[in-house]
Amino acid sequence: MSCAKGLTKPRRVLLALGLVAAFAALMPLAPLAQEDFMDVPPAPTGPPLTPLELGIKVYKSDFANCELCHGWSGGGGLPLMVDGMDMDGGPPLVGLKMTREAMIEVIACGRLNKGVMPGYFDDAWTAKYLCGGKTAAQVPAVERPPMFDPFLYMDEIEAVVTFIETVYMGPGMNLEYCMMYFGPESRGCDRFR
Ligand code: HEC
Q1: pLDDT band at 186, cuts 50/70/90?
Q2: Range name among 75-89, 108-122, 125-139 with the lowest pLDDT average
Q3: Pocket of ligand 1, candidates 59, 70, 78, 158: which has the most ligand atoms within 8 Å of its Cβ, to mutate?
Q4: What are phi and psi of 149, to 5 degrees?
Q5: Cβ neighbours for 58, distance < 8 A, ≥ 6 positions apart
Q6: Is the pLDDT of residue 14 over 80?
Q7: Is 64 buried (19+), middle (13-18) or exposed (0-12) by CB count in 10 A?
């Protein structure tokens, strides 16, 4: 037996609407997905990046900013301000003569010499990853380069080194690499066409 019995038709409709509204208020409309609770990165689409592609992504990214100091074409950069600190532009990477291992270490640990090259690896300057054979405790703070936060993973550091080796220590920026860097349609690459 319906409790709405005896109600006029419009009233019955109102009651029904009221019940729906009450339910809607109590229950979320759609079941909550896992993403609503956790910071789950979206599933990758397409094939995974090659080391060269990952290296380009890191080099030009605003979380690593290699490009700002070393230039997109590897020609070196202008002095700039990072986190309120005056930093010199990076030296050219074109034609660089350096071993892979030495490049990985300079990017992981950073280097304070004539200019400031920030370090990028979380474990750098600890017993897990020595810098120049030392931990932070063995080198006065003023002699240590600043560390860049957020940090890079070691596979990202290796990938950016692969990019430097392949492009700047290789033929330099050309149409093929420029299109990988800026996208195939980029007018920035017209100079190579
Ligand atoms: C704030 C500016 C700055 C940023 C950002 C920066 N660099 Fe540097 N980098 C420098 C400077 C300055 C040097 C030279 C340090 C010195 O005086 O020895 C250098 C040195 C280097 C060297 C060694 C070059 C040589 O001739 O010995 C490599 C390789 C390098 N950077 C790669 C990178 C990569 C890859 C990134 C991004 C992950 C990066 N740098 C980000 C400024 C920067």
Answers
A1: very high
A2: 75-89
A3: 70
A4: -120, 130
A5: 64, 66, 152, 156, 159, 160, 163
A6: no
A7: buried
**Cα distance between residue 48 and residue 32, in whole Å:** 29
Task: Give all domains of the chain, ordered by start, each with its CATH number.
Answer: 51-192 (1.10.760.10)
Ligand 1: residues whose CB is within 6 Å? 64-66, 68-70, 82, 87-88, 90-91, 93, 96, 98, 103, 106-107, 111, 113-118, 120, 160
CA of 156 from ligand 1 middle (Å) equals: 15
Do the beta carbons of residue 118 and residue 147 sit within 8 Å? Answer: yes
Q: How far apart are CA 97 and CA 117, in angstroms?
A: 17
First to last CA, the chain: 81
Instruction: Considering only residues 181 and 44, tell me which one the structure prediction assigns the higher pLDDT.
Output: 181
What are the tokens at 154?
A: 């070691």
- The torsion defined by the Cα of 181, 65, 51 and 72, in degrees rounded to 10, comes to 30
